[in-house]
Fold this protein.
Amino acid sequence: MTLDVSGLTKHFSQEKDGSPLSVLDSIHFRVQEGQFVSIVGPSGCGKTTLLRIIAGLENPSAGQVLLDGREISPDRGQIGLVFQDYALFPWRTTLQNIEIGLEMMKVPKKRRRSAAMDYVRSFGLTGFEHAYPKALSGGMKQRVAIARTLITNPKVVLMDEPFGSLDSQTRNELQQFLLNLWEEHRKTILFVTHNVDEAVFLSDHIVVLSKRPARILKTAPVTCARPRDRTSSECNAVRREVLNTLKHARLA
Ligand SMILES: Nc1ncnc2c1ncn2[C@@H]1O[C@H](COP(=O)(O)OP(=O)(O)OP(=O)(O)O)[C@@H](O)[C@H]1O
Ligand SMILES: [Mg+2]
């Protein structure tokens, strides 16, 4: 499996006068099967727009996104998307939220319930399977959101600042939780974050974007051995390189 993002360019037409707002400028990168790739870039540079285009929720103005050389069809469940704000349905319980993708795929109730229960158990949600999202902590909600995405077995998982609204301890726990999942299932993950530490801890490569319209300034390989020590000199060197690139991006 290979995900190719090729020459993606996006303009929005601005509400005030219809003039074009240039958001993405010829974005080009490849993600190989099983890789964990992070995208960092200044606030408002176009990261969410990029993920929305890859997920098929938005059309590009130019360029294309190919999965194994073919255009992605959003209705085939090839791409899973996890949002920062969880986007859980408040009127559905943990189990019902996790099951929703299988429900849309018309998987019979017994089978989807048993698959959702497996996720409840392995995601540490036992005891909360019949709870509604308002009764869950932020970390639990995000685990439900991740389970809901993984249960449909997408080829690529896109994550848009999934841990952005969590406190730092829960965030660290969920980073480790995500890494364990990734190591076990070897999912291909494209992960947007503001947090360079997080990107260095998690990724094989970090794509650094410029301010809007986003261009790729650098793709930094993260070569530190796994399991990673966040404070190792190798991790620090990558962090410094990415932070310097971002600093120049803000000043440019
Ligand atoms: N549907 C839309 N119509 C018009 N403009 C839009 C639309 N969606 C996004 N934009 C604009 O595109 C730019 C990039 O937005 P986007 O949400 O992709 O940035 P981002 O990098 O994800 O920001 P953040 O870091 O704050 O999450 C912003 O200026 C935003 O106002
Ligand atoms: Mg965003």
User: Anything to note?
Assistant: The chain is about 35% helix and 25% strand.
